[in-house]
């Protein structure tokens, strides 16, 4: 009886938290898209960073919606068959978002990192021009399974989801292993690139900040504060990206039972990335932060 009540409590919490995650994620990413969209209309152009942030925000709105739908399926509030049919689309959205986040990490590394190396100097000078091509390349690469392997992906997703949601279903382990291989093959490249670029940025920026602190006087103090703030923002980005990737790997391995505490916890961690990092992006961008405050104040006035 007590275990049943505890399970019901976990399920209620697991319903409320995804609702909050979805609302925050859609609102935060919506602000990014709207602010940059208004800027595009006014200026008739969009700087590369804003273009990358806008595309990333759009992908995260879709991803956050998919994650909320998955939560409803887990709680048996809706049928899971539509999820099976659209599983390839979910994989496309997730992979696109990971690639765009990876290029955002590379962009920050190229623009902010004080590394004095010819390769970094070359990348710093050309990264802005490369952004549109990186976005197009990410969309094309992520769409390969959707276009050429849609039938096979559908079969894999059907087998895996039947194994998850049907306790009596008998699914061959080979299919699960195949899905794990697909996951590692598709999602590991952006993860490795992001990890290398972000760690380079963290170590170089951390060393530069430490050197500035030892000689900080006057105006250098404010500069040191900016570097520390940027370092904390990058570290938060790294933690959220790692948690998203690791929980996705754990969920694809099917080591946790459906609706178990660890399974629900992994789903919550998985959904915290698109909403949590978007808040960090807004708080670290003066233009987005100012406009976000205007939207919130306008919303309060309307009430």
From TrEMBL:
Keywords from the named record: G-protein coupled receptor, Glycoprotein, Membrane, Receptor, Sensory transduction, Taste, Transducer, Transmembrane, Transmembrane helix
Protein localization: Membrane
Entry-linked Pfam families: TAS2R
GO molecular function terms listed in the Swiss-Prot or TrEMBL record: bitter taste receptor activity; G protein-coupled receptor activity
Top-level division of the source organism's lineage: Eukaryota
Membrane association type: Multi-pass membrane protein
SUPFAM superfamilies: Family A G protein-coupled receptor-like
TM region positions: 12-39, 51-78, 98-123, 130-149, 181-203, 224-242, 262-284
A Gene Ontology cellular-component term: membrane
Family the UniProt entry places it in: Belongs to the G-protein coupled receptor T2R family.
Protein name: Taste receptor type 2
Species of the source: Lynx pardinus (Iberian lynx)
Lineage of the species this protein comes from: Eukaryota, Metazoa, Chordata, Craniata, Vertebrata
């Amino acid at each position: 009886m007590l275990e049943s009540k505890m399970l019901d409590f976990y399920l209620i919490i697991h319903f409320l938290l995804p609702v909050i995650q979805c609302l925050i994620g859609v609102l935060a990413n919506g602000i990014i898209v709207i602010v940059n969209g208004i800027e595009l209309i006014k200026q008739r152009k969009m700087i590369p960073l804003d273009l990358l942030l806008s595309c990333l925000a759009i992908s995260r709105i879709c991803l956050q919606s998919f994650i909320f739908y998955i939560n409803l399926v887990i709680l048996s509030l809706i049928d899971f068959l539509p999820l099976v049919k659209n599983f390839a689309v979910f994989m496309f959205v997730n992979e696109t978002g990971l690639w765009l986040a990876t290029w955002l990490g590379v962009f920050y590394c190229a623009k902010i990192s004080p590394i004095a190396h010819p390769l970094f100097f070359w990348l710093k000078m050309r990264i802005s021009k490369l952004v549109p091509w990186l976005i197009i390349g990410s969309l094309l690469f992520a769409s390969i399974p959707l276009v050429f392997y849609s039938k096979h992906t559908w079969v894999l997703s059907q087998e895996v989801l039947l194994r998850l949601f049907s306790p009596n279903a008998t699914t061959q382990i080979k299919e699960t292993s195949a899905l794990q291989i697909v996951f590692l093959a598709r999602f590991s490249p952006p993860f490795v690139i992001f990890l290398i670029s972000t760690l380079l940025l963290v170590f170089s920026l951390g060393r530069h900040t430490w050197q500035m602190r030892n000689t900080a006087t006057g105006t250098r103090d404010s500069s040191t504060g900016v570097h520390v703030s940027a370092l904390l923002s990058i570290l938060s980005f790294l933690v959220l990206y790692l948690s998203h990737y690791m929980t996705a790997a754990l969920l694809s391995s099917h080591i946790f039972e459906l609706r178990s505490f660890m399974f629900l916890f992994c789903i919550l961690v998985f959904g915290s990335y698109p909403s949590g990092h978007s808040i960090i992006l807004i708080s670290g961008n003066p233009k987005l932060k100012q406009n976000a405050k205007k939207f919130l104040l306008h919303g309060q006035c309307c009430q």
